[in-house]
């Protein structure tokens, strides 16, 4: 159901090293829609987060980012409802 609504996953990469080089490299990967960078983390918007996790981790490491944590955040029913109706459940 989530895939049918255009749901996307978010992957939060935290670590040290060159986050700017990693952000640039990750933007080139197929399936990565957006990369937002902070001083010690990158937040990626992707389709099929679990399927892209291995190439994302490899690319970030190869670009000089030493990862300390990785988290995949998948859409929940509330975000699907918001996507379909344009309203939050409590509106």
Strands, helices and their partners?
Layout lengths: L8 E9 L1 H9 L4 E6 L3 E6 L2 H14 L2 E9 L3 H9 L6
Helix pairs in contact: 1-2
Protein name: DUF4162 domain-containing protein
Structure explained in plain terms:
The chain is α+β, with helices and mostly antiparallel strands. The protein has helices at residues 19-27, 49-62, 77-85, and strands spanning 9-17, 32-37, 41-46, 65-73. Strands 2-3-1-4 form a 4-stranded antiparallel sheet, with helices on one face. Helix 1 packs across helix 2. The two termini are 22 Å apart. The mean pLDDT is 84.
Supply the CATH class: Alpha Beta
> Which fold name fills CATH's third level, the topology?
Alpha-Beta Plaits
CATH second-level architecture: 2-Layer Sandwich
Characterize the largest beta sheet: strand count, sense, and whether it forms a barrel.
4 strands, antiparallel
Summary tags:
3 helices, four-stranded antiparallel β-sheet, alpha+beta, 91 residues, Alpha-Beta Plaits
Describe what is shown at a glance.
The protein has 91 residues and is of the alpha+beta class. Helix content is 35%, strand content 33%.
């Amino acid at each position: 159901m989530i895939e049918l609504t255009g749901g996307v996953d978010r992957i939060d990469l935290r670590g040290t090293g060159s986050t700017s080089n990693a952000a640039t490299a990750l933007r080139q990967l197929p399936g990565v829609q957006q990369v937002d960078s902070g001083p010690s983390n990158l937040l990626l918007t992707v389709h099929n987060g679990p399927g892209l996790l291995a190439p994302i981790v490899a690319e970030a490491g190869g670009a000089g980012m030493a990862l300390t944590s990785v988290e995949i955040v998948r859409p929940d029913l509330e975000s699907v409802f918001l996507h379909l109706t344009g309203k939050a459940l409590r509106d």
